[in-house]
Amino acid sequence: MKKISQTTWNRYKESTEGKETITLFEKLCSKDCTTQEMLDAAQRFNPQFFNNFSKKEIENCLKPLDFFDQVIGEQLSEVGTVLKETDDYYDFYFAILQCLTSENPDEEFDKIPQAGFKMLLGDNMFMSLLLYAYMPDFYIPNFFVMQFAYLQRFVQKYEMKLPEIPNRSDYRERCLYYLDMNIALIDFAIYNGIKKPSEICAFIYGCEMPVIKDELEAEFDKPMPSVPEQAWILVGNYGDGEKEMKHGYWQANQLTAKGDILLFYEKSPVKKLNAVYTALSDGVVDPFFHYYSNTYIGNKIVIPDDKAITFDEFKNSDYFKNRPKEGNFVSKNFQDVSGWAVTSEDYAEIKRMLEAKGYDTSLLPNLYEPKVKTNITITDEKDVEDLLLKPLLEQMGWEKDVDYFQQLPFPAGHGTTKRPDFCLHLTGEERKLGAKVVIEVKELMKTAKDIDETYEQGLTYAKWGEAQVLVLCDREQIRIYERNKDGKFDDKKFRRYRWEELQNLEKFNELKHALDI
Q1: Which 8-state DSSP code applies to residue 375?
Q2: Whether residue 201 sits in one domain with residue 69
Q3: What DSSP string describes 27-82?
Q4: Is the pLDDT of residue 482 over 80?
Q5: Residues 213 and 240 in one domain
Q6: Contacts 24+ apart (CB under 8 A), 209-213
Q7: Do residues 358 and 275 both lie within one domain?
Q8: Which residues lie across from 232 on neighbouring strands?
Q9: What three-state secondary structure class fits 412?
Q10: Would you say 114 and 166 are in contact if contact means Cβ atoms under 8 Å apart?
C-alpha cells in the first residue's frame, strides 16, 4: 500500500474547500443533521446516482433515509451497548441485514433468500449514510454506487487490495461487500495517519475523487480504437434527466471495451432502436449497481423517428426469425437482454434494415474485420510463429517486446532458466519474472501423442511462469487451456480454434478475451 502525499493532503485541509468539506462531514454525523442534509450530500458526492431522477424522485429519496434512520436507531437501542471492537460493528451490520431481509431473527443468515438482499442492494448508499451518522468511527458513506470506477482507480493509485467482487446473482455477498470495502478504506486511512471520520471522508470524496473523476474523463477524450471490435445491444427507458443525454453511465456488459458500438433500443412505449452510442470506457463491474456492470457511453448518433427500427419490424425480419435462439435478443422480445453481444451478422442485418428505411448507414461505425492469413505455405515452426501467430497477436493490439516476448529467459530454480516460445503479459520482475499467458509452438501436432508431448512441455513453462493460460499452437489450430478453480490445468478441458475460424469476428474476439487476462 502506498502512502498519500501529506503535503497535498495538508494543503487541501487548510484550503477553504477542504475546511468546508470536513465541516460538512462533521455535520453529517452530528445529532442535529437532517435527512435532507444527508440527501444534499449524496447529490453532491454521487451526482451520477441521481442522473436520471426527476425532482419528485429525488424528493422521494428522503423516505429510505428516514426508514434507515428509524431501523438503525431501534437496532442500537436493542443492542444496548456501545460498539467498540471491529467484531461489534461487523455483527451489527449483519444484524441490520438480518432485520431487513428476514422476519425470523433466528434464521441462519446464509439461509435467507437472495430476493431480500436484491431488494436491499439499491439502498446501500442511503443505509451507509445513516450508519455513518450513528457510528462514524467505523462506517463510511458509500458514494461509489454507480461510481465504482472511481474506487477502482483510487485502489489502483494507492496499491490497495479489495476483496474479489461477488458473482452477479449473489446479492447477499454484494450487500456484504460494503462491509469489506469499508474496512479496506478504514485500514488505508489508519495506515496514512488519518483518524478523524470527517477527515477520512473528506480525503476520499473531497480531495481524491474530483482528481480521479477528471483523470477518467480525460481518458474518455483520448482517441478511440480505429475500428471497433464488438457491438452490444442496450435496452432501457430514458429517465427525466437522460432524455437529452449525450453521454453518461449505462448498464452494459462487463466485457465492453472502449470504442465498442452500443445499439440502443428504447422500450415501451417507443419500442424502437433509435440511437447508436460509443463506449467511452471499458465495462466496469459495480457490486452495488442493481444491473451489476456499466460503461460510460457517449458520441450519440440519433436515428430519426421515421427511420428507427420498430419492434414489429424486428419481429418480422426473416433474418431474426431464422437466427439461432442463442443470443437472439429479438426472439427474447428485448427482455433482459441489455448488454448482450451483437454479432457481425446481426449488425449487418440491422444496417440493411436501416438502409431499407432510407437511413444513411455511412454515418454509423463499421465493425472490425479480422484478416487472418490462411492460404499460405508453412514449412516449419518459425513459419507458424512469423506468418500466423505474431500477425494474430499484433492484430489483437499486442506489441512485440512490449506485450509479448519470444524465447524470454526467466529463472526456474537451481540456476536454470526456462525459455517459452512466447510469453504474453509479463508479471513480476527479475528473479520472479513470469507471464499470464505462455504459448508453445509446433509446426504440426499430427497425433494425440504429439499433442500430449507439446502439452507437457508447455505445462512445465506455465507452472514455472505461474501462467493462468497455456496455449498450444501449430499451423492448423490453437488450443487454450485455463487453470481451474483449484489452480490446476486439465489436459482434457480446452478450447480449440482453427485458423480459418478466426476470420469470424466473434471467434476472433472470443480468443482475444481468453488471452487478455
Answers
A1: S
A2: yes
A3: HHTSTT--HHHHHHHHHHH-GGGGTT--HHHHHHTHHHHHHHHHHHHHHHHHH-S-
A4: yes
A5: no
A6: 209/45, 209/143, 209/147, 209/150, 209/154, 212/150, 212/153, 212/154, 212/157, 213/150
A7: yes
A8: 262, 341
A9: strand
A10: no
What pTM does this model have?
0.79
What does the pLDDT look like over 351-402, one tens digit per residue? 999 999 999 999 999 998 888 887 889 999 999 999 999 999 999 999 999 9
Determine the Cα–Cα distance for residues 364 and 156; give it in Å rounded to an integer: 35
Grid cell locating 332 = 427474447
In a domain, 248, yes or no: yes
What is the DSSP track for 465-493?
TT-SEEEEE-SSEEEEEE--TTS---TT-
Full domain range(s) for residue 51: 6-220
CATH of the domain at 508: 3.90.1570
**228 preceded by cis ω (within 30°)?**
no
Q: What is the mean pLDDT of the chain?
A: 92
Retrieve residue 138's grid coordinates. Answer: 467505523
What is the rounded distance in angstroms from the CA atom of residue 182 to the CA atom of residue 124?
12
Query: Can you tell me the mean pLDDT for 73-97?
Result: 87
What is the percent of the chain where pLDDT is above 70?
A: 98
Cell numbers given for 453 = 508431448
Positive or negative torsion for Cα 154, 172, 289, 326:
positive
User: Do residues 159 and 37 share a domain?
Assistant: yes
Q: State residue 244's pLDDT score.
A: 73
| Of residues 398, 400, 412, 418, the one with CA closest to residue 517 | 398
What residues contact residue 61 under an 8 Å CB cut-off, 6+ apart? 39, 42, 50, 53, 126
CA–CA distance, 328 with 276 (Å, rounded to integer): 19
Other C-beta atoms closer than 10 Å to the C-beta of 435 total: 26
Instruction: Check: CB of residue 450 under 8 Å from CB of residue 482.
Output: no
Task: Compute the Cα dihedral for 15, 157, 50, 174 and give only its sign.
Answer: negative
Look at residue 222 in the predicted model and tell me its pLDDT: 80
Query: Phi and psi (nearest 5°) for 161?
Result: -125, 130
